[in-house]
Amino acid sequence: MLKGHQSWLFENNPVIAGTAAIVGPFEGQGPLAHDFDIVHGDLRLGQDSWEKAERTLLEEAANLAIEKAGITKESINFLVGGDLMNQIISSTFAARTLQIPYIGVFGACSTSMESLALAANFVNSRSAKYAMASACSHNATAEKQFRYPTEYGSQKPPTAQFSVTGAGVSIVTQQGKGPYVTSATMGRVVDMGITDPFNMGAAMAPAAVDTIQAHFRDLRIEPGYYDLIVTGDLSKVGYAIANEMFEKNKFPIQQTVYKDCGMMMYDYEKQKVQAGASGAGCSAIVTYGHLLRRMREKELNRILVVATGALLSPISFQQGETIPCIAHAVSIENEVRQL
After folding, report:
1. Helix intervals (H) in 70-199
2. HSE-up of 170 (CA within 13 Å, CB side)?
3. Alpha-carbon distance 185 to 194, whole Å?
4. Is the CB of residue 94 less than 8 Å from the CB of residue 102?
5. DSSP type of residue 216
6. What CA–CA distance (Å, rounded) separates 190 from 238?
7. Residue 254 — very low, low, confident or very high, per pLDDT cuts 50/70/90?
8. Which backbone phi and psi does 197 adopt, to 5 degrees?
9. What's the fold here for domain 180-333?
10. pTM here?
């Protein structure tokens, strides 16, 4: 049901029945490596293009999530997913292979929670018995489309981020033992006039702050309700800006633990990732791999995942447009929320 102005409260308690997080070799060298289902040793995954490799990541993650949920592909009513490629071709071509009724979405790096929110809403409203949510990215495809091909060896500024190679998938259904998707807040487009594609953390931070504050305003709860609030991929630059904005707005973020997936993904001392991680796969694999593992082990019981996205395209950048950004928040809990 609608709660406040831009949030949904899922009174029928959609359940995350199965997840998969599959990554590339560089992600397998980071601190979260043991939380991923598969770490590939080959960035191409045996394919003859980066784009085919990204599609393969998603297909593998989808099939593994289905297996872990204990269902068949034919049981799934809808696949909701997207990626960073023009016309979301990684998701679309994977859907061609999977043959699941498909709803393609684009929220850039916010797609992981956009897709999960929509999948949960379908299940909550009984419009679906099983819904799949997905997001993926590949470092080489993203660099080639939005910046410079990695083969160029171009130098990047400290504000730049390193696109994750990975795919995250979840299966949402009507019944089970949890964890439960309890609510979602859909973000507004926020544009602070930034034009630099190498500084997307700064561009996305205001959207993250806007959605987080809207979530607590709509649901009339305090940040301390959650064990952890995690943004998608603001990384060092955007994370610092977000904290400054919370302080300026007198928003009590200090009541809980606040982290960022882009800062959790890699080892800053050993891996050259500039400000940190980004990519549609970033918050997907951190959530479906690392965070849900911690929830299963009861280290965390209530989390709010706020995936952030920069909605630029190569065309908009080439025409000198600013970067519009968005953030979508989804709460995941081990216990049914008391309405």
Report:
1. 89-98, 111-124, 139-146
2. 33
3. 24
4. no
5. H
6. 14
7. very high
8. -70, -5
9. Peroxisomal Thiolase; Chain A, domain 1 (3.40.47)
10. 0.96
